[in-house]
């Protein structure tokens, strides 16, 4: 069964087509990495899939009423601004709002679990306005984890995290997929994407230009034509891909 179904999804900004007839289904058990150069349409695709951007075509989530959609899919936006001086635990607890009741034991458990997964247990009482950029990014990821939805959509979740927390976050997402949930995340680091995702979708110029197993998708031709780079490949406890140089 698909957790997300997009059919002929198109978005136009002004007179400019930003997404052109994207068809994509995401099943339980998949961790889909959305990769592509700056401006390829990754953010627009995630937002249109959620119905946050006017679009043509069909997006299964956008057809749902707000609260039902928030119980089906959690969304981590690219911007990480928090305006209120609340505790980390209170921020993460906002992930429980779609479950629509006063916080109960299972809600507190979900918050604790999310804090632990993002290595934030010691920060739970800290004012979010006093976190570093990476700590705040992790707190916002914890919030979407606490939402405990079948599907998680994340826009550049590992940007700004240190290497250990990048790997840990990608592993958390992979674990969610392995446990039968679905994750779609835009990722610029092709090495992390190749290593942790079960599937990569390559966007370029608002179109899907490749879709499949990570190391097959990131072949020399795609790296050259879409990203303008060449890369080193190896195997070491899984696939290794290291961008090496920009092609002339
Ligand atoms: N409100 C807007 N008005 C006009 N053009 C827009 C608007 N929002 C986005 N675009 C354009 O749509 C295209 C896709 O933008 P989008 O943010 O989806 O790309 P992206 O793949 O997420 O890029 P990045 O990797 O830089 O975050 C870009 O060319 C961008 O300039």
TrEMBL record:
Domain annotation ABC transporter: ranges: 4-230
InterPro entries tied to this protein: AAA+_ATPase, ABC_transporter-like_ATP-bd, ABC_transporter-like_CS, P-loop_NTPase
Gene3D superfamilies: P-loop containing nucleotide triphosphate hydrolases
GO molecular function terms noted in the UniProt entry: ATP binding; ATP hydrolysis activity
Recorded superkingdom: Bacteria
Matching SMART domains: AAA
Keywords, comma-separated and alphabetical: ATP-binding, Nucleotide-binding, Translocase, Transport
PROSITE patterns: ABC_TRANSPORTER_1, ABC_TRANSPORTER_2
Role summary: Part of the ABC transporter complex HmuTUV involved in hemin import. Responsible for energy coupling to the transport system.
Descriptive protein name: Iron complex transport system ATP-binding protein
């Amino acid at each position: 069964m698909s957790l997300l179904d997009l059919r002929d999804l198109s978005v136009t900004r002004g007179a400019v087509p930003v997404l052109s007839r994207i068809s994509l289904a995401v099943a339980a058990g998949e961790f889909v990495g959305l990769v592509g150069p700056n401006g390829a349409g990754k953010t627009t695709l995630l937002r249109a899939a959620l119905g946050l951007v006017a679009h043509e075509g069909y997006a299964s989530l956008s057809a749902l009423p707000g609260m039902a959609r928030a119980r089906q899919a959690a969304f981590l936006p690219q911007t990480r601004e928090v305006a209120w001086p609340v505790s980390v635990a209170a921020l993460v607890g906002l992930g429980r709002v779609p479950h629509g009741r006063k916080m109960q034991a299972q809600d507190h458990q979900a918050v604790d679990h999310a804090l632990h997964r993002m290595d934030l247990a010691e920060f739970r009482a800290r004012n979010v306005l006093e976190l570093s950029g990476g700590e705040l990014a992790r707190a916002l990821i914890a919030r979407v984890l606490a939402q405990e939805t079948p599907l998680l959509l994340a826009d550049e979740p590992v940007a700004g995290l240190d290497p250990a927390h990048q790997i840990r976050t990608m592993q958390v997402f992979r674990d969610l997929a392995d446990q039968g949930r679905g994750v779609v995340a835009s990722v610029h680091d092709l090495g992390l994407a190749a290593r942790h995702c079960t599937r990569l979708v390559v966007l370029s110029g608002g179109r899907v230009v490749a879709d499949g197993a990570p190391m097959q998708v990131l072949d020399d031709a795609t790296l050259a034509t879409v990203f303008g780079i060449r890369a080193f490949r190896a195997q070491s406890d899984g696939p290794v891909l290291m961008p090496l140089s920009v092609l002339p």
